[in-house]
Fold each of these.
Amino acid sequence: MNELLIAQLGKDALRTALMVAGPALAVSLVVGLVVSIFQVVTSLQDQTIAFVPKVIAVMAVVAISFPWMTAVMVHFTTRMFTEFNAVVRQLS
């Protein structure tokens, strides 16, 4: 039972991390792809052309989705603290 409990906690932590980081990573991927295609078409090879739009897009997505991200993290943290006693009892 101990191994299953630890695996479930790890799975929940990874799922929460992917849910929180997913939107920013997806937007960064799409913006990077669009900028790379633009650089190939125009033969521009400056690195800041790829960096600045990605930073702006990721900052915008994080600013827009921050309340949702916070709610997901608070829910996970609250669940971990409320189930702490049961987890400790099962592990010992």
Amino acid sequence: MTRVLLADDHPIVMTGFAMSLKALGIEVVGQARTPEEAITMAEQFQPDVVVLDIRFGTELTGLDAAKALLARWPQTRIVFLSQFDQDSLIKETYRLGAKAFVTKDCDPAELAAAVRSAQEGKLYFMPQIAERLANLSVRGDDSPQSLLDERALAIFRLMAEGLTNAEIAEKLDLSTKTISNTSQSIKEKLGLHRQADLTRLAVKHGLIEP
């Protein structure tokens, strides 16, 4: 029997999917409510597949948990289950090494299929997700995730949240001059200079909460 760890900060949603997966012959070995719990429970239970939400209402996200899990155990099979389905965010989950991205309005059988495919080490794409990724590949990706490196993306998130250069420098333990130069470069790459436009772009691509 496939053994799965679920991680979601909405207990009712998680319990519902747990019951559905059990009915479909999949064992849920644990239910985590934070990214930190997901990492701890993954080490404890060694599940075949980890199903992660993306947003937890905490500083860490499901993406952070996935990075930590794959850094420690590169063979970890990860499926993302989220209500946030921006194209760039979906692309990012696969880029990180996830095996599937499934939306929360899916049929439980679809999640079960994604889990079983992930256990076998295969990529799984919901039909509508596959179509969107194909379109994204054809028309090009102008998202911040595509245009910025990891450090610039971290700075962009904080800029979009309205932090000043000095506040960003303190938070990331970098010099104010470095932040000032990087923020200017970010604005030029994105073709945006107004605070409202930066925030709107970050929300659009799932980088900050609306």
